Amino acid sequence: MAEYRVINPKGDTVATKDFDAADDAYSWFKEAQDNTELGWRLEVNHDGDWAFVDDSEGTDDSTSINDSDGPSN
Fold it and tell me: How far apart are CA 56 and CA 73, in angstroms?
């Protein structure tokens, strides 16, 4: 089991929780953040050091990407 934490855009830890699967932690992260504000981060405790997993930088829930189109350049 790994410990994860959610960091708000101000750098404060707002939630911490243990998960067996990274997918579950990522779903929890998406629910824990304020979707109106970018800059939220998900980190995992790796042998006593916190490591970056994902953030909300540059994304919001008001846009959607069609996976069948692939990335656009």
Answer: 21
CA 46, 32, 40, 6 dihedral sign is: negative
User: Tens digit of pLDDT for each residue in 23-57?
Assistant: 999 999 988 877 678 889 999 999 999 999 988 86
Q: Phi/psi class of residue 55: alpha, beta or left (left: φ > 0; alpha: ψ in -120 to 50)?
A: beta
Sign of CA dihedral 11, 13, 15, 18: positive
Question: What tokens were used for 58?
Answer: 């540059």
